[in-house]
Design brief:
alpha/beta, FAD/NAD(P)-binding domain, 7-stranded mixed beta sheet, globular
Length: 578
């Protein structure tokens, strides 16, 4: 049995920052990650990280409180306000900390960290590294991890790659550790820890039209969910307005922040025609822009090849020099994946699933209802994003709440030592996981898990997408329940022990279906439109009935929903106009 004071599940920005926070408190940490840390999906974040640095002359009157208000307003007032304020107050410290650790931020003509406008703010607030901000931040943290590993005065951070957590072990409402698989050998291990931090990212691969990496499945959310930890606000799924047609690769909001235009097939900047986007145009909040792009397409003003439809993201007026300097990644992706050079041609874009506002229910310190179990980053729901996340706040959330969760996990674990409490519970859980593996390996069922996954990925964007209505949601819920039933009869194509990704896919499919069911159940129950949840049959926001968080408790039959109050301690809800 493996033992570590602090166990971090996930090697992206939130996970690495949590491990470094533990290290800074001289506490050993073990990081389990499905891929090498710098292959984590954090690396794909492009546009920037928000913070009230006031480095741009137009941002001179910015402040953490204004940033927090914009975050709450952008969330359609479903964000917990104290949590949003805490994130925004920590933002300048965390951004500058990353600068001191070597993050090569883009600079303005005075040598300060450059900032550009993103959705929901009236002035530049978003620090960036060209259009590869996540890449730079992740490499910076990984360099720190390696430095701390080599520093004699620090306690070690151990990283184990190609490990996946299958279950979390809870005894008497206390987290004792996890059961994980080493994919390279196929061996399952019980890992005991005084505190466990889940930082596994989003669940975008539930949808077929996602900007997320292949590794972004629902398993990281499902494992605590199966163990009795609620998921919160799962119905709120963000669609990024601009993903590349054909692959749904992200086309950063930074392209619009630099001055890019969205145009329809008549050459019009159509956002001016909609009251909710006429003020801030291309840098309006993402839910608004995504809906208005979709409206243009549905009304026949998009471009089409007869199979799919899109609008154009036009950067040509920015000029070659600015595109090469500020948006080199976007240019490379457009050329390599669509054969379009944005210096000379507009980029075909359409909305794509991008982010999960919901996740593992946790408090402002990252703590769940289970002692010793924490969550941070996209897999968590603090909630700082509410019904809609502002661009630039996701990278911020990872390093702010990664650090917070790491520190609080250390405080919780202090003095406990290797007590070996929970050893029997871990050993029993390991036996149960071995039995699950045996059943999957020996199954003679008739269902191919890959086929079931494709059916799920088709129904989710079609029926649980940007525009929703009861009829579609009921159809989606019935389909997901059907797939959950058929899942019990899956058969693997490969039954070897080492590097069995067929087995991993089957496990992740079960997780995806359970998380998808929670998404659909929450969306069907919430009879209003708020943020990313737009109900055609309930097209207005209803604060009287629905200004509340949805919590989903796992049962074998499906999500059991209940509701919780939203923290409104700072600002009263107002109509969300832009």
């Amino acid at each position: 049995m493996i033992y570590k004071n602090i166990l971090v599940v996930g090697g992206g920005l939130a996970g690495l920052r949590a491990a470094i926070a533990a290290n800074q408190e001289n506490t050993p940490a073990l990081v389990l990650t499905k891929v090498h840390p710098i292959r984590s999906h954090s690396i794909a974040a492009q546009g920037g990280i928000n913070g009230a640095l006031c480095n741009h002359m137009r941002g001179a009157h910015d402040s953490p409180k204004k940033h927090a208000y914009d975050t709450v307003k952008g969330s359609d007032f479903l964000a917990d306000q104290a949590a949003a304020l805490r994130m925004c107050e920590d933002a300048p410290t965390r951004i500058i900390e990353m600068e001191h650790w070597g993050c090569p931020y883009s600079r303005d003509d005075r040598g300060r960290i450059a900032q550009r406008p993103f959705g929901g703010a009236g002035f530049p607030r978003t620090a960036y590294v060209a259009d590869t901000t996540g890449h730079a931040l992740l490499h910076t943290l990984y360099e720190q991890l390696v430095r701390f590993e080599l520093a004699a005065e620090r306690r070690e951070i151990e990283v184990r790659e190609e490990w996946v957590v299958l279950s979390v072990v809870i005894e008497d409402d206390v987290c004792r550790g996890v059961i994980a698989i080493d994919l390279t050998t196929g061996k399952r291990e019980a890992i005991m820890a005084e505190a466990v931090i889940f930082a596994t990212g989003g669940a975008g691969r539930i949808y077929g039209n996602t900007t997320n990496a292949i590794i972004n499945t629902g398993l990281g959310m499902a494992v605590p969910y199966w163990a009795g930890v609620p998921l919160k606000d799962m119905e709120f799924v963000q669609f990024h307005p601009t993903s590349l047609v054909g692959t749904n690769i992200l086309m950063t909001e930074g392209a619009r922040g630099e001055g890019g235009f969205l145009v329809n097939n008549k050459g019009e900047r159509f956002l001016a025609s909609y009251p909710d986007s006429s003020k801030f145009m291309e840098i309006s909040p993402r839910d608004i822009v995504s809906r208005n792009i979709t409206r243009e397409i549905l009304e026949g003003r998009g471009f089409t090849d007869g199979v799919t439809s899109w609008v154009h993201l036009d950067l040509r007026h920015l000029g070659a020099e600015k595109i090469v300097a500020r948006l080199p990644g976007i240019r490379d992706i457009s050329i390599n994946f669509r054969g379009v050079d944005p210096i000379n041609e507009p980029i075909p874009v359409q909305p794509g699933q991008h982010y999960s506002m919901g996740g593992i229910d946790c408090d402002i310190d990252g703590a769940t209802k289970v002692k010793g179990l924490y969550a941070a980053g996209e897999c968590a729901c603090v909630s700082v994003h509410g019904a809609n996340r502002l661009g630039g706040n996701s990278l911020l959330e990872t390093i702010v709440f990664g650090a917070i969760a790491g520190r609080h996990a250390v405080q919780y674990a202090a003095g406990k030592g290797a007590s070996m409490q929970g050893k029997a519970a871990l050993e029993e859980a390991l036996v149960r996981e071995e039995e699950k593996r045996r059943k999957l390996m020996e199954s003679t069922g008739t269902e191919n898990p890959w086929d079931l996954g494709l059916e799920m990925k088709k129904i989710m964007p079609e029926k649980v997408g940007i525009f929703r209505k009861a009829e579609d949601l009921k159809e989606a819920h019935a389909k997901i329940q059907e797939l959950r039933g058929r899942y019990k009869n899956v058969k693997l194509n490969f039954t070897g022990e080492k590097l069995n990704y067929d087995l991993l896919n089957a496990v992740e499919l079960g997780a995806n279906l359970d998380v998808a069911e929670a998404i659909v159940a929450g969306a069907l129950a919430r009879e209003e439109s708020r943020g990313s949840q737009f109900r055609l049959d309930f097209p207005t926001r209803d604060d009287e009935k629905w200004l509340k968080h949805t919590t989903a408790q796992y049962t074998p039959e499906g999500a059991k929903l209940s509701y919780a109050d939203v923290d409104l301690s700072l600002w009263k809800p107002v109509e969300r106009k832009y």
